[in-house]
Structures are given as C-alpha cells and as structure tokens.
C-alpha cells in the first residue's frame, strides 16, 4: 500500500509500505518531506502509516529516495513513534533525523494544543468578587494614604537616626515636571472648554435676549466643576499613567527591591513626593485652568454676543462668589491626592514584565478618571447638602 | 542542619576587618531549616547551611530551582514559610521591620540586572545609601563614592546615567553601590549573567580582590560553572525536583566527588546521565548524547 502526504505532483512527500522483507514491513519514504510541499497534518499521515504497517511489530525504514526533509518529517515520525513506541536508534534513518527524534524523549500521544481554561462564574459570584476586590482596593488606598501621612513626620530608628523618607529635591523635581510642564496642555484644553460652553450658551440664550447670562453659565461651570475636573482628567492621563509606569518599571528592574534591601520604604521614598507634588500642583493648575477657561468664554462672548470684556468681568464677579473658588480649590486638592494614590498603588502592585508596565499605566489612567468622576459626584452631593 | 554537613574550620580574617574571630568564629550567615516560595507554592524547603567569614559561598543549581528566591529571603525581601536567616547569630525574620531593615544594611546586594536607580547618575546611586544612613559630611561622601567607583574600575563614570553604561559596567557600578556602606556580607545574584567571558572573568577577579582587600564574605548565586570554579570555596547545590539542597561543598569537590547524578550532570555540563564518580564516560559517538 502507499500514500501521499499531500495531493501534489511528483517530488512531493510520498510513502509506501513494502513487504519485501519476510519478517517485517518496511516504510519507504521518498520525495520532499517539507512544510512547504505538504498541507497534511503529520498526525494524520502517521495514523495512516500506523494502520498500513499493521500490528505494533518491528518495522524497517528506507530513506534511500528521500530527497529533502525538515521538521515535517520529524513531526510525522514523532507521531508514529507515539503510536508504535519504536526506538529511533533501531531504524535506518539519516543520522541527523535520528538525533532529532532521539531528542523527543516523551512519546506522548496527547498532542492537542493547551487551551486556556475558561473560568465560568455566575453573575452573583462575579458581582461579589468584583465588589470585594473594589473594597480591598479602597482599603489598600486608605492604607497607602496612612503610610504617606506617617511618612510626613519620619520617626527615629532604633539606632537613633531618622527613617529614610522623602527627599526635598525629588519633590521639587516631580512638581516641576508635572506642574509647570503641564501648563500648555491644560491651558489649551480649558480655553477650548470655556469657548465651547460660551458657544452653547450663546446659541440658546440669544433667543431670549439673555446673552449676559452666558457669563453665569461659563463662570459657574468652570469655577465650580469643569476647571477642576478637566484639569484632573488631563493629569490622570499625563501624570497618573507616568507615575504608574515609572513605579512598575522600577519594580520590573528590581529597583524597588534595591531600595527595600537598604531599609528604604519605596512608599515613603517615591510615592510620597509623587503624591505630594500632585496635591500641591493641582490647586495651582486649577486656578490657571479656570482663568484660561474664562478667557475662552469671554472671547466668544465678546465676539459673538457683542458683550464687552468689562461687562463680562463685572457680571462674573457678581455671580461667582469666592466660596465657589474655595469649593473648586478643595476639590482639586482631593483630585490630586486621589490620582497620586491610585496610580502609585497600581504601579507598586504591577507585575514584573514589560506587558505589566503597559497594563499598569492603562489601569492607572482608567481607574483615576473613574475615581475623579465618582469623587466629583460625592463632592456635588455633599456641597448640596451643606448648601454650598 | 542536613546530615553530612559540618561547617569547615574558620579561616583567619585579615586584621582590621569585621569582628575579630575567636578560635572558632561563628558563621556570619546561617540558614536554618528554611522553606521559601510564593503564595502556596514551596520552591525550596529544609534548607540549612552556614557561611564562613571571609569565604565565597556559592548557591548553585539549575535554572528555576529557586536560588534567587532563597537570596530574596536572605536579603529580607521575601518572608520564608519556615525557618530563619541568622545574620551574625541574629534571626532576621524574628525582628521588627525597622530592626530588620537596620540589620539588612549589613548586607550589600548585587541584583541580577544591577537594579541601578535609573533616574540617578552612577555616582548618585553609590552616594544615596551613604547620604541616607552614614550621616557624613558631603565632602566625605563624595570621596567615598569616588573610592568605591575606583575600586570597581569606574573612576571616570560617576556622571553617567545607568542607561549609558554597558552590561558589565552596570554590574560593576551596582557592585560599587552594594559596597557603599562597607557591608561585611555581599550577596551576588548571578553576577556573570549576560556578560561576555572576558567581562565575566574580570568581575570574578574583582569579587576576589574585594573579598581579600575588604575582608568581606560573599554569597554567590550562580549557575555559571567557570565563575563557580574560579571563585567559590564552599557552597550548596539546590535541586528543583527535590526542592531542597542535595549537596554541600565547594564546586570543585562537587564536580570531582559528588555521587548524585543531578549534581554530576550539572557540574559536567552533561544533559544525560553520567556514571558515578570514578567510572568512565560514555562513548563519544553515542547518539543519546545529542549533537
């Protein structure tokens, strides 16, 4: 009997079983047994060879007419070996082929590709697990905040020296890179947000002859909400992702371990200046962002609604009390604290691979943005409750 | 302690280094019935050995046998499941974190990839431990940093950033940082990994010179046989399958006399079985021995 490993013209992989030796069958291989010349799976070819060879008895092999071979032939014989259990040393194979087969020490028969187990959980279990994870995450953030708070006042070690903690120059360096350096992008975004608000307001209020109230809309929205929220969202992407990626990279490079072996707590040494720099920078950026947004709104009001700059400013002073600025400033401090804690915690807990660094940066941005929105909602409810 | 292991006699310690040894000085490091791992997976267990002062002690074994995990437990980075690490007789893992951190500073650690702080220059990397813990005037810190960098052959590289160094230079800079606080015990995690043979040889010689010159003790994690034979004078062999130490002795002793097939395969760089010590090797043409 004979077979083709692939329905191809002459020269392709071909095999026959010869009974020319009385005591045992001989598997005759010929042609080109390469991946490029066949599409048939080695396992299928090996199964047919096994059937034709008959009972698992000793057999010979003839490779005299074998023109070319690669791992396809090795895979076929490996599968045949799994079915028949022969020792490649006993076969008359080309020496390199015999050596390769000898390396495949385990003639396992289960050659299915491993599949990733799919863990199926009920909705209730999934909800419960997610909730518990979220609570654990909040607890972790609270503990990190506590550690940082204690780190502001370093204790004395048993030897009498101060516990190593935040370096002042690190705080200044991080503040410079994530505060003033963010001014252009924050200015541009808030200028456009202010202009968009004024456009929307102008289109509606002009119908009622109430153009002057564009100032109320732009002023209150920016001072009370959007100035802080838009700035925080920009910092989530610009700074939160950078913090998480930096800490995750340091973890992957064992730099955090190098600190720990010296008894330096990475949370106090690295996370504290990062978070503190954000807490200091956010209110300043908020004021700058609000000013930029108001400027954008005023430009639209002056050019589209024929309002003068002085009437815009006068109306603004009348409708936006200082307490609203205080509310926005307070929120911006909380947003800075939240972004620092969330992104740094995610960076510290990241895995030790390149993929984990990217994953940590992504998660930090997403979690920070969601956190900022949730925190803003809580602030809005609280402000309403106290009549602010 | 495992059966068959006795701490060899303590060598003389050069004058002016470490605490003066008595007739038989206690080991600088003792590992007592240590079990380490991650989560619920035990990587190594029942691990016991002693490290003599002034010796170069090698923790040997194949890839994935848990050498670096053991080092993390010794360095205070990974709490063991069982057992303890006795540093100068003090159990490391029974101390409070602040006390453990203080004791841990008597160990310098060279991590596998150097682990230099990438945002600091080479000199700042070496200076940071001195600035934080030595409470020295800035001028003294600068001079000590220059000395440490000169010791490792990088006297003119202090201003460079870690990313600007070659692999071998990074290892040497990390070695300078590990030596910053003049620790009596130096832990080296795969110091030769990723280095070319010449750089690897230079680093080996440097370790020996530092050991002799500074009187420090070195615990070396490695599977690089040339390095092990060149510098280690005592050691322990960890096995991944049995998850414990299966042989004690210097790398040369283990190579020449240890009867365990796993140890012999490793020490002779032979993936297949070798006969017991004293018997001949298999024929060269045997196909079972690969290419």
From TrEMBL, chain A:
<dbReference type="Pfam" id="PF02405">
    <property type="entry name" value="MlaE"/>
</dbReference>
<feature type="transmembrane region" description="Helical">
    <location>
        <begin position="294"/>
        <end position="313"/>
    </location>
</feature>
<feature type="transmembrane region" description="Helical">
    <location>
        <begin position="181"/>
        <end position="205"/>
    </location>
</feature>
<keyword id="KW-0472">Membrane</keyword>
<keyword id="KW-1133">Transmembrane helix</keyword>
<protein>
    <submittedName>
        <fullName>ABC transporter permease</fullName>
    </submittedName>
</protein>
<keyword id="KW-0812">Transmembrane</keyword>
<feature type="transmembrane region" description="Helical">
    <location>
        <begin position="333"/>
        <end position="352"/>
    </location>
</feature>
<feature type="transmembrane region" description="Helical">
    <location>
        <begin position="269"/>
        <end position="287"/>
    </location>
</feature>
<feature type="transmembrane region" description="Helical">
    <location>
        <begin position="364"/>
        <end position="386"/>
    </location>
</feature>
<dbReference type="InterPro" id="IPR030802">
    <property type="entry name" value="Permease_MalE"/>
</dbReference>
TrEMBL record, chain B:
<keyword id="KW-0547">Nucleotide-binding</keyword>
<dbReference type="InterPro" id="IPR003439">
    <property type="entry name" value="ABC_transporter-like_ATP-bd"/>
</dbReference>
<dbReference type="InterPro" id="IPR027417">
    <property type="entry name" value="P-loop_NTPase"/>
</dbReference>
<dbReference type="GO" id="GO:0005524">
    <property type="term" value="F:ATP binding"/>
</dbReference>
<feature type="region of interest" description="Disordered">
    <location>
        <begin position="249"/>
        <end position="291"/>
    </location>
</feature>
<dbReference type="InterPro" id="IPR003593">
    <property type="entry name" value="AAA+_ATPase"/>
</dbReference>
<dbReference type="Pfam" id="PF00005">
    <property type="entry name" value="ABC_tran"/>
</dbReference>
<feature type="compositionally biased region" description="Basic and acidic residues">
    <location>
        <begin position="249"/>
        <end position="273"/>
    </location>
</feature>
<keyword id="KW-0813">Transport</keyword>
<keyword id="KW-0067">ATP-binding</keyword>
<dbReference type="InterPro" id="IPR017871">
    <property type="entry name" value="ABC_transporter-like_CS"/>
</dbReference>
<feature type="domain" description="ABC transporter">
    <location>
        <begin position="29"/>
        <end position="267"/>
    </location>
</feature>
<protein>
    <submittedName>
        <fullName>ATP-binding cassette domain-containing protein</fullName>
    </submittedName>
</protein>
């Amino acid at each position: 009997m004979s077979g083709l490993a692939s329905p191809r013209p002459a020269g392709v992989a071909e095999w026959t079983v010869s009974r020319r030796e009385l005591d045992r069958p001989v598997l005759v291989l010929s042609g080109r047994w390469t991946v490029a010349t066949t599409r048939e799976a080695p396992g299928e070819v090996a199964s047919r060879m096994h059937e034709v060879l008959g009972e698992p008895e000793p057999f010979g092999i003839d490779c005299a007419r074998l023109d070319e071979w690669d791992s396809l032939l090795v895979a076929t014989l490996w599968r045949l070996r799994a079915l028949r259990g022969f020792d490649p040393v006993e076969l008359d194979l080309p020496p390199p082929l015999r050596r390769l087969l000898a390396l495949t020490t385990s003639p396992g028969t289960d050659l299915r590709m491993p599949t990733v187990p799919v863990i199926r959980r009920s909705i209730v279990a999934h909800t419960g697990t997610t909730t518990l994870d979220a609570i654990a995450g909040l607890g972790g953030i609270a503990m990190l905040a506590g550690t940082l708070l204690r780190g502001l006042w370093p204790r004395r070690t048993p030897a009498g020296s101060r516990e190593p903690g935040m370096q002042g120059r690190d705080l200044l360096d991080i503040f410079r890179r994530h505060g003033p350096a963010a001014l252009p992008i924050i200015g541009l975004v808030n200028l456009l947000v202010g202009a968009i608000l004024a456009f929307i307001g102008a289109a509606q209020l002009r119908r009622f002859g109430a153009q002057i109230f564009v100032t109320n809309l732009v002023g209150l929205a920016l001072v009370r909400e959007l100035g802080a929220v838009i700035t925080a969202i920009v910092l989530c992407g610009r700074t939160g992702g950078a913090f998480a990626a930096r800490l995750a990279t340091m973890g992957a490079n064992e730099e955090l371990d190098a600190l720990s072996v010296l008894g330096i707590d990475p949370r106090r040494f690295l996370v504290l200046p990062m978070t503190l720099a954000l807490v200091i920078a956010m209110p300043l950026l908020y004021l700058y962002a609000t000013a930029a947004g108001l400027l954008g709104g005023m430009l639209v009001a002056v050019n589209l609604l024929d309002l003068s700059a002085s009437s815009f400013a006068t109306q603004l002073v009348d409708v936006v009390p200082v307490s609203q600025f205080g509310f926005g400033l307070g929120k911006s401090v909380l947003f800075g604290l939240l972004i620092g804690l969330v992104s740094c915690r995610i960076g510290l807990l990241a895995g030790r691979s390149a993929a984990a660094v990217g994953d940590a940066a992504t998660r930090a941005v997403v979690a920070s943005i969601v956190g900022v929105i949730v925190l803003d909602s809580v602030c809005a409810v609280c402000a309403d409750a106290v009549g602010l | 302690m495992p059966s068959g292991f006795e701490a060899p006699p303590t060598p003389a310690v050069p004058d002016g280094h470490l605490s003066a040894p008595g007739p038989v000085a206690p080991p600088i490091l003792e590992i007592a019935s240590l079990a380490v791992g991650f989560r619920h997976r035990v990587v190594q267990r029942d691990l016991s050995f002693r490290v003599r002062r002034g010796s170069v002690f090698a923790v040997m074994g194949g890839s994935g046998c848990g050498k670096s995990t053991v080092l993390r437990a010794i360095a205070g980075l990974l709490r063991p499941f069982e057992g303890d690490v006795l540093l100068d007789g003090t159990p490391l893992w029974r101390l409070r974190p602040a006390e453990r951190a203080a004791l841990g500073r008597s160990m310098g650690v060279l991590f596998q990839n150097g682990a230099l702080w990438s945002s600091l220059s080479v000199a700042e990397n070496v200076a940071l431990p001195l600035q934080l813990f030595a409470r020295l005037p800035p001028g003294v810190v600068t001079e000590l940093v220059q000395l440490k960098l000169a010791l490792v052959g990088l006297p003119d590289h202090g201003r460079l950033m870690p990313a600007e160094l070659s692999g071998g230079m990074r290892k040497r800079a990390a070695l300078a940082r590990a030596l910053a606080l003049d620790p009596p015990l130096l832990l080296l995690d795969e110091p030769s990994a990723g280095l070319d043979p010449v750089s690897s040889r230079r680093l080996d010689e440097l370790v020996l010179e530092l050991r002799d010159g500074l009187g420090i003790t070195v615990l070396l994690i490695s599977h690089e046989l040339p390095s092990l034979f060149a510098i280690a004078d005592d050691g322990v062999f960890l096995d991944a399958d049995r998850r414990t130490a299966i042989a004690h002795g210097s790398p040369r002793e283990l190579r020449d006399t240890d009867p365990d097939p796993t140890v012999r395969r490793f020490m002779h760089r032979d993936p297949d079985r070798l006969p017991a010590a004293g018997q001949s090797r298999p024929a060269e043409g045997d196909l079972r021995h690969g290419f």
